[in-house]
Every structure is written in structure tokens, then in C-alpha cells.
Design goal:
This protein is mainly β. The chain has one domain. About 5% of the residues lie in helices and about 40% in strands. Strands 3, 6, 7, 10, 11 and 12 form a 6-stranded mixed sheet that branches. Strands 2-1-5-8 form a 4-stranded antiparallel sheet, with no helix packed on it. The termini are far apart.
């Protein structure tokens, strides 16, 4: 069986791109594509991260959809496909704005790579969950600022894939993130998780258990007794 003849000579970053950040935490607040779409097709144009004293310190996570717009190189079924892409990493550059002017932040926290893997055939898409584009150590620097206020960080992201032994970089994807240091920005804090789970009144929950993009409830879990007590913070999910 003979497939459609495809030209494979025009390979550049426009053939490979990040389509959108999927709204895994806030599907109810995101705009959908023209076809309506499922939860994973809902998109966010910007993010919000609560790093107040009641939020989590786990960075900001992106849920990107990658697109391989290359045409198939196969002219017959048993011919090797030369336009498959194998994801290697995401390269991230952060523009810190006012945050960068107020802190001595190491360049390693604003320019870095996040390893990833996945396979994208010609004309295909790949959805990746939880790419950390704001590292924990960067947030530690920001938390040293006076409490309260909001800051804007713009992340510039490129996916990098292997294409026949050469690296192919995607179109640069620009994504703004509002960093909130104000109390009650996104997080409804209940000190004891037992009380949170036993609450009879409705409490805000988001779908990813992170203090990003949508209101949620966080609480503290404790294990052990006396000096051996260990406490850590978690956010509840709607799942």
C-alpha cells in the first residue's frame, strides 16, 4: 500500500511547537477550543502561583501540548519514517522583572533545562504533565521579599527533540506567571487536615493539588508524637 508522498526538506522550528498550556488545575476557568473539547483541551494563557506563608513551595508546573507539524517522509509502508521526533528536554529562560532587580538571583535559576521524554510522529501531538518551569530555589529567593504584593515572571520555553540525530528546537513559547505573596491569594488554609477533611461547608478545591492557577484548600499533616513529630503541608484535590 502506497501512502501520500510527503516532502521532508523544510524542517525548522516552525514545524515543531508548544500549542498551549493545558488547564489541568482550573478547567472550569479556562477557555476551550472551538470544538468545545475535553478537560485536557482547555487552555490557560497565563498562570498564578501562591507562595504566601500558606501556599506550597513546589514551583510552577506547566502542562504543555507539543505538536509535530512535519509531514510523513514515508512513500511506502516499509520505508523508515524520518520525521519522527523524540523529546529530550525543555529549555527555560525566565525574565524576572522587578523580582530580579530586588534580589541577587543566580543565573542558574533563570536559565536552565528540564529533562523530558516522549515520542511524536509526523502530524501528531504529545501531552506532557508537570514540567517545573519555576524552580523551588528561585521561590526561596522571592520569599525573602517583604510579605504581600504580586510580581510578574515571564517564562520563555523551547522544547528540544531529536530529529534523525540532530536537535530540533520548537518555536519559543512565552508564558506569564503572576507570583502572589499576599495572604488568601489562592489558598484557603485550614491548619489541621483532619478538620479540612471533616468540613461540612464547601471548601475550594482544584484538580491538581497545587497552589497554582485556581483556589484550593491547603492544610498541615502531622505524624509521630513529641520531638519525633513531622509536619508537612499538602493541598487537597477535587479528584
Amino acid at each position: 500500500m502506497v501512502s501520500l508522498v510527503a516532502l521532508s526538506g523544510c524542517v525548522d522550528e516552525r514545524s515543531f511547537y508548544i500549542k498551549a498550556n493545558r488547564a489541568k488545575c482550573t478547567p472550569q476557568n479556562a477557555s476551550s477550543n472551538s470544538s468545545g473539547g475535553s478537560k485536557d483541551e482547555l487552555q490557560l494563557g497565563a498562570g498564578v502561583l501562591d507562595i504566601s506563608e500558606h501556599g506550597l513551595s513546589e514551583g510552577y508546573r506547566l502542562f504543555p501540548t507539543l505538536v509535530n507539524d512535519l509531514l510523513s517522509s514515508q512513500q511506502v509502508d516499509d520505508e523508515p519514517e524520518r520525521n519522527n521526533l523524540r523529546l529530550k528536554r525543555f529549555d527555560v529562560e525566565l525574565a524576572l522583572g522587578q523580582v530580579g532587580r530586588l534580589n541577587q538571583i543566580p543565573s542558574a535559576l533563570t536559565s536552565f533545562s528540564v529533562h523530558a521524554s516522549g515520542f511524536i510522529p509526523p502530524g501528531g501531538v504529545l501531552q506532557i504533565d508537570g514540567v517545573k518551569i519555576l524552580p523551588d530555589d528561585l521561590l526561596d529567593h522571592i520569599k525573602r521579599l517583604p510579605r504581600g504584593g504580586r510580581d510578574l515572571i515571564v517564562a520563555k520555553i523551547q522544547a528540544v527533540a531529536d530529529h534523525n540525530g540532530s536537535e530540533l528546537k520548537s518555536v519559543e513559547f512565552e508564558y506569564p506567571i503572576e507570583i502572589c505573596r499576599e495572604k488568601n491569594c489562592l489558598v484557603n488554609f485550614i491548619p489541621n487536615c483532619k478538620d479540612a477533611l471533616a468540613a461540612t461547608d464547601p471548601i475550594p478545591l482544584n484538580a491538581c493539588g497545587l497552589s497554582q492557577d485556581a483556589p484550593t484548600t491547603c492544610c498541615d499533616l502531622s505524624f509521630g508524637t513529641g520531638e519525633k513529630t513531622t509536619t508537612f503541608r499538602t493541598c487537597l484535590t477535587s479528584k
